[in-house]
């Protein structure tokens, strides 16, 4: 089973999304954090679950539904060291990482 590493850049994206939602709806922010955590942990069991993106074939996006939209995690599964690296994180309505 691959190990999961969340990069500093991804943590910054997660924190930015958490702060934004916390200001509007603290309880929703707590629920979102739980769902996001659960979904990211799925990458350890099924690293190919995400949709392919432009770039190396190991690069994928995991769409995490929440409320009326959701979040997107950009990740790479390095099969050489059997590690999933979460590279970036954003809200679905944000443009780019």
Number of domains: 1
Which band does the percent of strand residues land in? 25-35%
**What would you say the CATH architecture is?**
2-Layer Sandwich
Q: What is the tally of beta strands?
A: 5
Q: Helical residue percent?
A: 25-40%
Any idea what the CATH superfamily is called?
RelE-like
Lateral arrangement of strands in the main beta sheet:
1-5-4-3-2
Distance between the termini: 27 Å
Overview of this protein structure:
With 97 residues, this protein is of the alpha+beta class. It has a single domain (3-91), classed as RelE-like (YaeB-like fold). Helix content is 38%, strand content 34%. The protein is built from two helices and five strands. The chain has helices at residues 8-24, 26-45; strands at residues 3-6, 51-52, 59-66, 69-78, 83-91. A five-stranded mixed beta sheet has the order 1-5-4-3-2. Helix 1 runs antiparallel to helix 2. The protein is globular, with a radius of gyration of 13 Å.
């Amino acid at each position: 089973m691959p190990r999961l590493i969340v990069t500093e850049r991804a943590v910054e994206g997660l924190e930015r999304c958490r702060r934004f939602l916390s200001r509007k709806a603290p309880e929703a922010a707590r629920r979102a954090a739980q769902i996001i955590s659960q979904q990211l942990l799925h990458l350890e069991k099924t690293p190919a679950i995400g949709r392919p993106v432009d770039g190396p074939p190991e690069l994928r996006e995991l769409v995490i539904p929440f409320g009326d939209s959701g979040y997107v995690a950009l990740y790479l599964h390095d099969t050489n060291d059997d590690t999933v690296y979460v590279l970036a994180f954003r809200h679905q309505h944000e443009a780019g990482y």
